[in-house]
Specification:
- The complex is a heterodimer.
- By secondary structure, chain A is α+β, with helices and mostly antiparallel strands.
- Chain A is built from two helices and three strands; from the N terminus they run αββαβ.
- Chain A has a single domain, classed as GMP Synthetase, Chain A, domain 3, CATH 3.30.300.90.
- In chain A, α1 crosses α2.
- The longest helix of chain A has 11 residues.
- The model of chain A has no long low-confidence stretch (mean pLDDT 92).
- Chain B has one domain: Glutaredoxin.
- The chains are: A alpha+beta, B alpha+beta.
């Protein structure tokens, strides 16, 4: 079940309000995305914790409606 | 409360230095993300145990709850959750994966 990029971005920003989200639709099929999420909330957190924060913001869609989202997370430089 | 699936996971990650929960087997991965992590691990030359979650749906759901992580593959080193495909690939490229294996005293290339 494809999910529009805008919806992914909106959910992430809802969960992590200061997040800057860049999403790329890797195959143009609305089903395989890469996301870069930059937020001050990631500072001092491990990569696992950072990704868990994004997955929580996506409210269970990751691994379900959202099949493939390659994720890169960063705190602002 | 004891949970038989969690008990099994704990035993597997304690008995084996490096465990990869994956779809398919190391020789025949059935998902691109699992295949990518197998490839990274073979580059590092580390010995690992692949556990095929497709053979057991209670394990497939159980490992997601155990790690609080929604996707497969999942890599464990010395009982500690390292990450999924994106993190493992990133750590391999930055050299952090080899550092982690060194720190944990796991033999690799």
């Amino acid at each position: 079940m494809p999910m529009p990029a805008e919806e992914i971005s909106a959910l992430i920003k809802e969960g992590i309000p200061d997040a800057e989200v860049t999403i790329e639709d890797l195959r143009g099929d609305g089903d395989h995305y890469a996301a870069l999420v930059v937020s001050r909330a990631f500072a001092g957190k491990s990569k696992v914790q950072q990704h868990q924060m994004v997955y929580k913001a996506l409210k269970g869609r990751m691994g379900g409606a959202l099949h493939a989202l390659a994720l890169t997370t960063q705190a602002p430089a | 409360m004891s949970n038989p699936v969690f008990d099994r996971i704990k035993q597997d990650i304690n008995d084996n230095d490096v465990v990869l929960y994956m779809k398919g087997t190391p020789v025949f991965p059935q998902c691109g993300f699992s295949a990518a992590v197998v490839q990274v691990l073979s580059h590092t030359g580390v010995k690992f145990k692949g556990i095929n979650v497709l053979e057991d749906s209670s394990l497939r759901d159980g490992i997601k709850a155990f790690s609080d992580w929604p996707t497969i593959p999942q890599l464990y080193v010395k009982g500690e959750f390292v990450g999924g495909c994106d993190i493992v690939r990133e750590m391999y490229e930055s050299g952090e994966l080899n550092q982690l294996l060194d720190q944990k005293g796991v033999a690799h290339k």
